[in-house]
Amino acid sequence: MFLTVEGGEGAGKSTQMDVIETLLREKGIPVLRTREPGGTPLAEEIRALLLTPRQEPVVELTELLLVFAARAQHLELFIRPALARGDWVLCDRFVDATLAYQGAGRGMSAELIGRLRDLVLADFRPDFTLLLDVPAQRGLERAAARGVSDRFERESMYFHERVRECYLQLAHDEPERISVVDAGAALEVVSASVRDACHGFFARSGSRA
Question: Which domains does the chain have, with CATH numbers?
Answer without folding.
Answer: 2-205 (3.40.50.300)
